[in-house]
Amino acid sequence: MKKIELVTAETVRDTRCKERKGSVVKRALFSVALLVLHSSFLAPVCHAQKDSVKANKLTIDLQFLAHGEICAGGLPKPPATDDPKPEESFSAFLQGRTRIGIGYERNWLEAKVVLQNNAVWGMSSNMSVNLYEGWVKMKAKNGVFAKVGRIALSYDDERIIGTNDFATASLSHDVAMVGYEGHGHQVHGIFAFNQNSENVYDGTYYNNGSQYYKTMQTVWYHYDFPKFPLGASLLFMNMGVQSGIMGSTYYPPATKFQQLWGTYLNYHPQHLTLEASYYRQSGTVVNSEKMFRPIRAWMASAKATITPTDRYGFELGYDFLSGDDYVPVIYGGTYGLPMHKVDGGFSPLYGSRTKFYGIMDYFYSSARINGFTPGLQNAFVGAFGNPIPKLHLSAKYHYLAVATSLDGLSSTLGHSMDIEAGYEFSKDVSLMAGYTMMVGSETMNRLKQGDNNKYAHWAWFSLIVSPTLFTTRF
């Protein structure tokens, strides 16, 4: 017989309480399970996405440069005529440079690729494109890094190693670099080995490459003093340059080594900047495939820049670049035939030359003729300012002289005046223009072998458009 249970109000109440308690426990357990699931799976995914956004950056940049020049004087007479026609001593051209760069950054990794097209307007080869930069950099947390590839090197004031960007092709180097940066110290070791092709049978003979040197080893050290506005740099370079002719028994191929070492100082208290540098060159300089000799040369410079306000400033300085002890100059002819056993002419190597010795770059593009150079003294004074926002004006006067004595000639080469103006339309668009006038002496005329060197003038402009096309983080 089936047992009949008596259901009372208390029984019903107890049953509902147990059901509610069970439901609450189930909900609590379900919530805990969701929390554990979120902590174990969902949270790491979100955290990884957050870290990923912070860690990766991709940037695409464009730079367009339109450059024009008008030159008059400063060139030797054409050999076929005694009196050049106006068109023969006058030149004008337009030049374009287009660069597109891709940069990538992560916590410990950087990479950059810059493609460049540089050509005079109208050239048949203006569709050629070359790699201006292409490198990868790996960094450790302790400040140690390694960088490998084609790199635009720039150190200190760019007197010895710089991009020389005013010459639109600019300079870059195929190198491997290791270094350390931290606590005010910077140490860079740079190593290069250049070759024309993947030589299998012809050894390591190197000629007519993109860089003058065959091998290069450089150490640069810089220190910024704490609590004192002084920075000091030391530089040592060892460059191996190819001499001789491949396959020749009279001029067998050989690598000749030249060394450069020196220092650069920059003291910059408020409203004043004092700069000084000193470098020496030794070893062997290669003048041609068949000619080389020992080199013993040096240079020294000093510069002061005064900025009473942010609107204007003044600068003055002096450069001395050594030359040969004896430079023969013959009336109505070329440099003489005497040979010298030691080369005394200092070479600024891979620096930005127009920055120091006049925008016209009148000397060190052709300083050595028949193996001789008279060196250079450059005393200058200038002023610069911003009379209105976004407009920059500057003027600089150069007194130029040789650094060695010449038979029967004054040491004065001439006087040069550089005037420049720049206007920034926006952060991406700017226009620069300049005018240079050179008044040469009889010494200038005799050394350069042409009456056109007594007076020369040159005007130029550059339109620079450099937007960032694309930036993303992922």
Write the layout of secondary structure elements.
Layout lengths: L8 H47 L1 E16 L17 E16 L3 E12 L9 E10 L4 E8 L21 E10 L2 E9 L21 E10 L5 E14 L10 E14 L4 E17 L2 E4 L2 E10 L5 E10 L54 E10 L5 E11 L10 E13 L4 E12 L1 H7 L6 E11 L2 E6 L1
Antiparallel strand pairs: 1-2, 1-19, 1-20, 2-3, 3-4, 4-5, 5-6, 6-7, 7-8, 8-9, 9-10, 10-11, 11-12, 11-13, 13-14, 14-15, 15-16, 16-17, 17-18, 18-19
Description:
With 474 residues, this protein is mostly beta strands. The protein has one domain: Porin. Helices cover 11% and strands 47% of the residues. The chain is built from two helices and 20 strands. The protein has helices at residues 9-55, 442-448, and strands at 57-72, 90-105, 109-120, 130-139, 144-151, 173-182, 185-193, 215-224, 230-243, 254-267, 272-288, 291-294, 297-306, 312-321, 376-385, 391-401, 412-424, 429-440, 455-465, 468-473. The protein has an 18-stranded antiparallel β-barrel. A hairpin with a 2-residue loop joins strand 6 (173-182) and strand 7. The model is unreliable at 1-13, 15-26, 28-52 and 75-81 (pLDDT under 50).
The fraction of residues assigned to DSSP E strands is over 45%
Structural shape: globular
User: Biggest sheet, open or closed, and with what strands and sense?
Assistant: 18 strands, antiparallel, barrel
- The share of residues in helices is 10-25%
> Nearest-angstrom radius of gyration?
33 Å
